[in-house]
Automatic annotation (TrEMBL):
Upper lineage: Eukaryota, Viridiplantae, Streptophyta, Embryophyta, Tracheophyta
Protein name: Omega-hydroxypalmitate O-feruloyl transferase
PANTHER family: ACYLTRANSFERASE GLAUCE, TRICHOTHECENE 3-O-ACETYLTRANSFERASE
Alphabetized InterPro entries for the sequence: CAT-like_dom_sf (IPR023213), Plant_Fungal_Acyltransferase (IPR050317)
UniProt xrefs under Gene3D superfamilies: Chloramphenicol acetyltransferase-like domain
Similarity section: Belongs to the plant acyltransferase family.
Signal peptide location: none
Pfam families in the cross-refs: Transferase
C-alpha cells in the first residue's frame, strides 16, 4: 500500500566533504559562428538553472581520472552542435526579450573529490540536500548575464565511483532535448562515434504569429505586466523551504496497475475513448490528495487546478522535428471542485487529466505562445506535477556503462510535486512521488494518499 520513507536516510552524512580540485572553461572543439540566438516565448519564462546528478559505479577499466578527461573532451565536442551552451544570456533592450549571445565564452568543467564511497552517501533516490555539493549551479562574483549556461562537475568517490553533476539554464533545454543532449554527450565520450541524434536548433519554429492571435482563454497562464527578461526566475510556486516537511511516496508497479484498473472498471466502454496511462492515473491520484489536504475556508465548492507539462512536438501542424532543441512543452491543466475530487468517481478525474492534454492541439499551442507575446505570463494553478518518470536519463550508455541513478537536485517547493523513476531500471512502472508541504497539510496528504489507494484496490 504505497510505501513511505518517513525519515531521511542521509541523517548520518549531511556533509559529503567535497573538494573542488580544478575548474576550467571548456570551449567548442571547432570555431563556431558568432550570433544572437532567438529564444521562444516558452524559453523566455524559464530563466533558472536545472541541476541534475548522474551517479556511476566504479569501473576498473575506466578510473576516475580517465573518465574526467573523456568527459571534458566530450563536452568540448558537443559544444560545436550545441554552440549556444558556450554562450551567455543577454537582454535585448529594444525588444525586451532574452537572447543567447553565441560568443564562445565557454562552458565550465570542474573536477572534485568526495571523501566517502558511493554506498556510504545513502539512498540515491531520497532527496539528500547534501547532493547539492555535487554540482555548482552558478559562479560567484559573476553577474546574471555573465553566468555560464552549462556547468559540469565531475566528482569522484573513494570507491572509484563518481557523479556527473550538470547544471544548465532551463532556457536551453526541456527534459526531452536535455535527454538528447545527454545521448550526444555520451556518444562523444567514445573515441570514434558520431553524434547519436543531431539536434535541430531552429527555435524560430516556435515564434509567435504576426500579429499574435490569442484564440483561447488560457486559465492555466497568469498575466504579468513586467517586461520579459527582467525577472530572473518565475515568482510562482514558491515557499520558504524551512516551513515545509517533505516525504517520498512510492507507488509500485502493481499499485500503478491497480489505479489503472480502477479507472477502467468504472466504465469499460468509455475507457476506450481516453488513455489510461500510468501518468494520468498517478496525476489524478495526487491531484485528489493535494487538493483535499489544503486548508481552505472555501470548503467543498473550492475549485482546484492541477498543471502538468505536455510535449507539443508531435501536436503541431506540421510536427516539430523530434530532435528540436529548446523548450517545446506547454502547460496542460484540469480543474474540478474539491467536492467532485472527494466524492466523484476516480475514472472521471483520470479522464479530466487526459482531456487536459488532449486540449493541446496545434491551434491551442499557437494561442498559448501568442499569449506569451501579449501578456508575458507564467503558468498559473494550484500546483504543478513535474514528471521525470519516463525521461530515461539512466538509459544513457557511456564507455564506462550506464548510470546507477539519475535525478534532479531537489528544491523543496510547496506547489511542485515531482515524479521520479525507481532506482531499479527494470521496474519502469514504479514511481516515487516527492511532496513538500507544511506539516499539517502533509499529515492530511499522507492519510488521503493511503485511503484513496486502498479504495482503488
Amino acid at each position: 500500500m504505497g510505501s513511505l520513507q518517513r525519515g531521511p536516510p542521509y541523517s548520518g552524512i549531511q556533509d559529503l566533504k567535497v573538494t573542488i580540485q580544478e575548474s576550467n572553461l571548456v570551449f567548442p572543439a571547432k570555431e563556431t559562428e558568432k550570433r544572437s540566438k532567438f529564444l521562444s516565448n516558452i524559453d523566455q519564462v524559464l530563466n533558472f538553472n536545472v541541476p541534475t546528478i548522474h551517479f556511476f559505479p566504479a569501473n576498473g577499466e575506466f578510473p576516475p581520472k580517465i573518465v574526467a578527461e573523456k568527459l571534458k573532451t566530450a563536452l568540448s565536442k558537443v559544444l560545436v552542435p550545441y554552440d549556444f551552451l558556450a554562450g551567455r544570456l543577454k537582454l535585448n533592450h529594444q525588444s525586451g526579450r532574452m537572447e543567447i549571445d553565441c560568443n564562445s565564452a565557454g562552458a565550465v568543467f570542474m573536477v572534485a573529490s568526495c571523501e566517502f564511497s558511493l554506498d556510504e552517501i545513502g539512498d540515491l533516490v531520497y532527496p539528500n540536500p547534501a547532493f547539492g555539493q555535487l554540482i555548482v549551479q552558478k559562479l560567484d562574483n559573476v553577474g546574471p548575464y555573465d553566468q555560464p549556461l552549462c556547468i559540469l562537475q565531475f566528482t569522484s568517490f573513494k570507491c572509484g565511483g563518481f557523479a556527473m553533476g550538470l547544471s544548465n539554464n532551463h532556457a536551453t533545454f526541456d527534459g526531452i532535448s536535455f535527454k538528447i543532449f545527454l545521448q550526444n554527450l555520451a556518444s562523444q565520450a567514445f573515441d570514434d562515434k558520431p553524434l547519436a541524434i543531431p539536434p535541430h536548433n531552429d527555435r524560430t519554429l516556435l515564434s509567435a504569429r504576426t500579429p499574435p492571435r490569442v484564440t483561447f482563454p488560457h486559465p492555466e497562464l497568469l498575466k504579468l505586466k513586467i517586461p520579459i527578461g527582467e525577472e530572473l526566475s518565475p515568482p510562482t510556486f514558491d515557499c520558504p523551504e524551512e516551513e515545509l516537511d517533505f516525504k517520498i511516496f512510492r507507488l509500485s508497479s502493481d499499485e500503478v496497475n491497480y489505479l489503472k484498473n480502477k479507472a477502467k472498471a468504472a466504465d469499460p466502454a468509455e475507457a476506450t475513448y481516453y488513455k489510461i496511462t500510468g501518468f494520468n492515473v498517478v496525476t489524478a491520484h495526487i491531484w485528489r490528495c493535494k487538493a483535499l489536504s489544503c486548508d481552505s475556508k472555501a470548503g467543498p465548492e473550492r475549485p482546484s487546478t492541477v498543471l502538468y507539462a505536455v510535449d507539443i512536438r508531435p501536436r503541431l501542424n506540421p510536427p516539430l522535428p523530434a530532435s528540436y532543441t529548446g523548450n517545446a512543452v506547454l502547460t496542460a491543466y484540469a480543474t474540478a471542485q474539491c467536492k467532485e475530487l472527494e466524492e466523484g468517481p476516480f475514472s472521471k478525474l483520470v479522464k479530466m487529466v487526459f482531456e487536459g492534454a488532449s486540449r493541446m492541439t496545434d491551434e491551442y499551442a499557437r494561442s498559448a505562445i501568442d499569449w506569451g507575446e501579449v501578456y508575458k505570463g507564467f503558468p498559473h494553478g494550484e500546483f504543478l506535477v513535474s514528471s521525470w518518470w519516463r525521461l530515461g536519463f539512466a538509459d544513457m550508455e557511456y564507455p564506462w556503462g550506464k548510470p546507477r541513478y539519475s535525478c534532479p537536485v531537489v528544491h523543496h517547493r510547496k506547489d511542485i510535486i515531482l515524479l521520479f523513476p525507481d532506482i531499479d531500471a527494470a521496474n519502469t512502472d514504479a514511481v516515487n512521488v516527492l511532496v513538500a508541504l507544511p506539516v499539517k497539510e502533509m499529515e492530511k496528504f499522507e492519510t488521503l494518499f493511503h485511503k484513496f489507494l486502498l479504495e482503488a484496490k
